[in-house]
Specification:
The protein is mainly alpha-helical. About 80% of the residues lie in helices and about 0% in strands. The longest helix is centred in the N-terminal third of the chain and has 46 residues. About 50% of the residues are buried.
Amino acid sequence: MQEEKEAPERKKWPLAVVFVIVLGLVSLLADMANEGSRVMTGPFLAALGASAAIVAIISGLSELAGYSLRVVFGWVTDRTGRYWTLTFIGYGINLVAVPALALAGDWPFAVSLMLVERVGRAIRGPARDAMLSHASVDTGRGWAYGVQEALSSVGGMLGPMIVVLIMLIGGNYRMGFLVLAIPALMAMVLLVYAWKINPRPRDMEGSCTKIDTRKRLPSAYWYFVAGAALVAAGYIDFPIISYYLSDTQMVADDLMPILYALAMGADALSALVFGRLYDHKGMGILIVGLLIAPLFVPLIFSGNIALMLVGMVLYGIGFGAQESIMRAIVADMAPYCRRASAFGYYNAVFGIAWFSGSVLIGLLFDLSMPSMIVLAVGLQLSSIPLFMYVRSDSRNWKGRRKAKANHK
């Protein structure tokens, strides 16, 4: 009887590992399509007759919509438990919207497809993150989200490089959008496999009742979200960095994708390292990362190429630390029946703060570079007291399920 009882436990851990890796590969392929199309949308809209102001406004609004709608779809995911339905819808939209840009004959139609693609990300994001949280109870949450972010970063690196190759062989934007349909389709195929091996992801951690889905998120969670918002507001977006490097002629325009790939490579490696460190050392690792990462701001805007390259590496390291550790903390803090909602709120606040911070930083960029640097660094560092409070209150986190780092 004892052997019969233990057998399922021996199978559960490898299934969780395989599931995490497969979902990570889905993100890799989907981000190849998303990030590859993203580097083309600006010049493509311009070629269709859109002004620079329209491109800037639409880019900002699409990102804002993609983040803010996650609150709605996080709530829907928790209440319905339809993880896979929402995930398939979200990735399916990605499969259709990206190649459809090749058919756009005017900028309003192209803009509508951009918005639809971001809505697709909003639909699938909370459900995917919640599924990872349930699997990661057996793998280590930092490891699980580190793997997901690392593979996502590889996709974000490969997508723009594919676009560069298409342009080098004489292709155009429309050809680029059509080619990116291939990784989007492959992502859907892998998603079907993930569903087949784990059709009920919530059951890896427990079952939920309607009462469970109405549990309040712990107060420390909101302090954590506030701290994350400060980090997001101070984290300078890459378009501002690339604009500065192009304007000062430090980096040629055709080398920007390579520079972005450098940052994404650092992102991928740091996500794996910081994720594992979180599993073993706890939330203090996030604070260490926040003491290091803000240095990217003065280094990138120093006017020195060598320092700029170091700054780009730190820029990627900061991303990796955020995406692996912060999402692992959200999973640890939230009751498992409210995970999708917790991720929805977290991502929405993070995205809105990033958008607001980017607007303010963009204004200061033209007015006073030193003030912009001080603001960006100051916002990130100001999050540390909030995170220290959350860390001190960790014993009171309701619904906390500490994920042991068993993956070796």
